[in-house]
Amino acid sequence: MKIAILPGDGIGPEIVAQAVRVLEKLKADGLAVETVTVPLGGAAYDQYGEPYPEATRDVVRTADAILLGAVGGPQYDTLPRDKRPERGLLAIRKDLGLFGNLRPAMLYPELAGASTLKPEVVAGLDIMIVRELTGDIYFGQPRGIHVNDAGEREGFNTMRYSESEIRRIAKVAFEIAQKRNKKLCSVDKANVLECTEFWKEIVIDVAKQYPDVELSHMYVDNAAMQLVRNPKQFDVIVTGNIFGDILSDEASMLTGSIGMLPSASLDANNKGLYEPCHGSAPDIAGKNVANPLATILSLAMMMRYTFAREDIAKRIETAVQTVLRQGYRTADIYEAGTQKVSCSGMGDAVVAALA
Ligand code: NAD
After folding, report:
1. pTM for this model (two decimals)
2. Ligand 1 site residues, Cβ closer than 6 angstroms
3. Alpha-carbon distance 183 to 218, whole Å?
4. 259 C-alpha to ligand 1 centroid (Å)
5. What is the fold of 1-98+258-355?
6. Sorted alphabetically, which InterPro entries does this protein's record hold (predicted)?
């Protein structure tokens, strides 16, 4: 297993260090892992003047899988757009063809109280959001800010999806639904946006190859409402880049903390970039208080989706469940009666649980 490690910015290095300790434990137990650490985002800009430099590109292109912390920070917000950390993230996804973003939203029973929703609404929640990651309004051309014909400044972006882009993400989503409860909800805004009317038409066509999966459709505004009203109605959700960005963050809060949620971004051959759903959390960076569990759970997803090692994925997930049951909590999920631990303290607990 050749794994590229990209700590990134902010809390990235702290949380990735805990996941690397998990990898080291697995290695000590006999797993053949080789890791190379390279910068991305602000850290790469500081070192090379680019958020996605050649040195990083060379390593990630030849790796089997990539583990990323997070990128970004206020000190980079005034850089020219193409030098900003977030551009590094968009560039790596595009460069590696990582079009399928898998974001599970699962509620660990021990954390039911950490959700802002009533426990009965979220208890037992297990949703998978499949978000298209390399198309849509985030990449569509033309884009920019210009002076229009009336002489007024205006900003504009283009929502765009090709048929092949929709087909390949729909296929990923149907196949995941087949392995779960066989229910897929495609989210669009087909009543207003032609681009997503087309999305819906193609998803319906792809569905013919998956007669065992029950397909439904929902407008994005309704989906945003249903996710907080009755989230357990969903099994797998498939949607475009911008809707998926927003809905997956919303779904993350159902589970109590964004610090608990892993994600995978896959190419057509299951090579993947694995990262927590959250950002670089500059407000708590360097304080050793961040929750490393989303990053550790991202490693579990890597074992499952890129390396097809369900056994190791389960071993990591069981260790996480064990530490939660033992009562260990980082500040973001802390409740009275539990034991507050630091970021590295949570890493200690997970490594101990693995043993
Ligand atoms: P964020 O996810 O970094 O933080 C939102 C809130 O959640 C903050 O209060 C933060 O302290 C908390 N939080 C996040 N992760 C946590 C963790 N593991 N443990 C405990 N608390 C945690 O989002 P933001 O504040 O909107 O963005 C901060 C920076 O991150 C920006 O520069 C943004 O561009 C970047 N960002 C990067 C990614 C990525 O790398 N994939 C994703 C989103 C945002």
Report:
1. 0.88
2. 11, 15, 70-73, 86, 89, 258-259, 275, 278-284, 290-291, 294, 332
3. 13
4. 9
5. Isopropylmalate Dehydrogenase (3.40.718)
6. IsoCit/isopropylmalate_DH_CS, IsoPropMal-DH-like_dom, Isopropylmalate_DH
Can you give the pLDDT at residue 291?
A: 97
SS3 per residue for the chain: CEEEEEEECCCHHHHHHHHHHHHHHHHHCCCCCEEEECCCCHHHHHHHCCCCCHHHHHHHHHCCEEEEEECCCHHHCCCCHHHCHHHHHHHHHHHCCCCEEEEEEECCHHHHHHCCCCHHHHCCCEEEEEEECCCHHHCCCCCEEEECCCCCEEEECCCCCCHHHHHHHHHHHHHHHHHCCCEEEEEECCCCCHHHHHHHHHHHHHHCCCCCCEEEEEEHHHHHHHHHHCHHHCCEEEECHHHHHHHHHHHHHHCCCHHHCEEEEECCCCCEEEEECCCCCHHHCCCCCCCCHHHHHHHHHHHHHCCCCHHHHHHHHHHHHHHHHCCEECHHHCCCCCEECCHHHHHHHHHHHHC
pLDDT attached to residue 257: 75
Q: Point out the ligand 1 atom lying closest to the alpha carbon of residue 275.
A: 41
Residue type, 136: D
Q: Which of 79, 81, 258, 334 to mutate to test the pocket of ligand 1 (most atoms within 8 A of CB)?
A: 258
Instruction: Please indicate whether residue 245 is annotated as part of the active site.
Output: yes
- Å from CA of 226 to ligand 1 middle: 25
Strands 126-132 and 100-106: antiparallel
Q: Which atom of ligand 1 is nearest to the CA of 281?
A: 3
pLDDT in tens, 295-334: 999 999 999 999 999 999 999 999 999 999 999 999 999 9
Q: How many CB atoms lie within 10 A of CB 287?
A: 13
Residue 279 Cα to ligand 1 midpoint, Å, equals 3
